[in-house]
Amino acid sequence: MQQRIAEFSAAINDRIDLLRQTNATLESIAQALFKSWFIDFDPVRAKTEGREPEGMDAATAALFPAEFEESVLGLIPKGWSVQPIGELAEAVGGSTPDTKNAAFWEPALHHWTSPKDLSGATAPVLLDTERKVSKAGLAKISSGLLPVSTLLMSSRAPIGYLSVTRIPVAINQGYIAMLPGGQLPPLYLYFWCQANMDAIKGRANGSTFMEISKKAFRPIPALLPPSKVVEQFVELAKVLFDRLTENERQAYSLANLRDALLPRLISGKLRLPEAQAQLEDALA
């Protein structure tokens, strides 16, 4: 029986591993597309050399110019611009309600995150948080409840954890959050932050630990492509991230199911066929 329980656990772990390997592939596809369009400028280089851009239809190719021009960031596609990141996306911070005041934490109603939630993250999306705040606790956080699809970047200890929220969430003081609705949407900003993390960390300071403030973050120069190019990228990346999110939800559910069933199986309180039936329901 112990062998059969071990096999049952291993089957769940294999499924979780497969989902997360798939997610790594999905993210790498989106990352490669971002690099091609917005770092290496492959479609523009192809046009300057008299070639058709690879891997895109004619309508998408038409969105890219056939020339470069000088900028503070070096050569960029003609007609694109460079602006401070703070003018292209709204960046906000958060805070921690008094942890000694139970009224700020009970009843636990609203998701509240610290960078600790991202320290062991297996996907670039936030589906849950370790702690929640009450209505009174939320009122103590000036940025309030941030909407779904906000990009979170840890701003200290360490700098650089990144996650796109899939739940409304309040944040602590260890984040810079970039909200939807700006000229550069959070999915674009996720890959922009990845590509520019050295520059972001280069603006940090601190005696106890390095931290980048919103004041230091906002002036960082960022490339602003035409809105139609950004929209086309986000349309493609969103398909990948939506699938990634569903995979991570399933992996999260499977891990919780495994952790709930194994103690009951080992203790004999649950029979293996019953556990297998619950697993099949979860995968359905």
TrEMBL record:
Residues 77-244 form the Type I restriction modification DNA specificity domain. Pfam families: Methylase_S (PF01420). InterPro entries: Restrct_endonuc_typeI_TRD, Restrct_endonuc_typeI_TRD_sf, Type-I_RS_S_subunit. GO terms for molecular function: DNA binding; endonuclease activity. GO terms for biological process: DNA restriction-modification system. The keyword Hydrolase applies. The keyword Nuclease applies. Keywords: DNA-binding, Endonuclease, Hydrolase, Nuclease, Restriction system. Belongs to the type-I restriction system S methylase family. This is Restriction endonuclease subunit S. It comes from Piscinibacter gummiphilus. The lineage of its organism: Bacteria, Pseudomonadati, Pseudomonadota, Betaproteobacteria, Burkholderiales.
